[in-house]
Amino acid sequence: MGDATIEVPRLEQDYFDDPHSIHALMREQAAATQVVLQRGLKVWLVTRYEEARIALADPRFRKDIRDERLIDRHFVGDPADRVQFNDTLAHHMLNMDPPDHTRLRKLVTKAFTARRVEQLRPRVQQITDELLDAMDGKSEVELLDALAFPLPITVICEMLDVSMDDREQFREWSNTLVGGTDPIATRDAGAAMAEYLAKLVEHKRAHPGDDIFSALVHASDEDDQLNNAELIAMAFLLLIAGHETTVNLIGNGTYHLLRNPDQLAALRADRSLLPNAIEEFLRLEGPVNQATVRYTAEEVELGGTVIPAEELVFVALSSANRDPNRFPDADKLDITRPAGGHLAFGHGVHYCLGAPLARMEGEIAIGSLLDRFDLSLAADPDTLRWREGTLIRGLYSLPVNLAPRGAR
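^ Cytochrome P450, sequence as received from the core. Prediction below:
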């Protein structure tokens, strides 16, 4: 039996700069390793592929953590550093187990079927073309601001019929909440967003429209309406998950493509490789570093490591996706690699509901970008900063040089 508790490392800034090297060391030592997160929470980090799949789907790993004492017991840092997430926003289906999770997911699943998502393709292409038009004539742009952020936030806001007027404020709240590194800023952003979404719920109740969120507010599926708290949390989950993952799929994918000229040339030569390339971007540098927290309902043996009952567990999706026992040459970008099998969207009952939408947006954004421009990085890769926080894996900025296609 592997002993992963001799030393409990703390995940500091070097982890956010390069989690992959640290994950590689952990995978060699054990399937799961106890670590202390940046703000002082002691958890088990699952890093190997096979064990990650188990932890994501095994009902012994629970999601519904309502008892704050479980968190308190594993917090070993300064109490002033304790990040407490807004209770109203946290009451969503990603933090629930069946049957509660099943009930809520059923109400939104039909909005994200492959057929419904495909109906959005012309509008996604139109938004992308408008954003690329705005980039025309510029020799350099910050790609996250110019394309990667505005595309998915526009799409999800239109799906939910949410005003775009507060887009930048919403982006600031979102970055703060998913980063979770500043306790005071996190508390304030959570309160502000909860208030904003509560007003949105009331507006939709009084003035329903032909959109997903109005349908949720007025849901009557077997008389199974969502209460106010569930509606606010559902709006939060759909808005955050509906854009954060795609922002970083587009950003991370473009970054790695520009760092691998041979792969860029291969994709330009054979555009049929694009769907496969999207899967490879998701595998190599997916937008989610660690899946959201779980806890063990009982003692669990995982790949030779015993995790006691009532321990907090995080699954490192980015580590599982670079496990060489599952993916040969796992640290190498290979857009011809057989697609599928990666865990970028999770696994099991909590598999990402918006995966078809994220894939389509990523494919349209990156494909259209390559059709329109010749690109290169406008900064030394070593100077680009990765966002802090265990959840999201993405760059703060991605400056790129632009030239009309074929002009160079």
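Residues 13-404 form a domain with the Cytochrome p450 fold (CATH 1.10.630.10).
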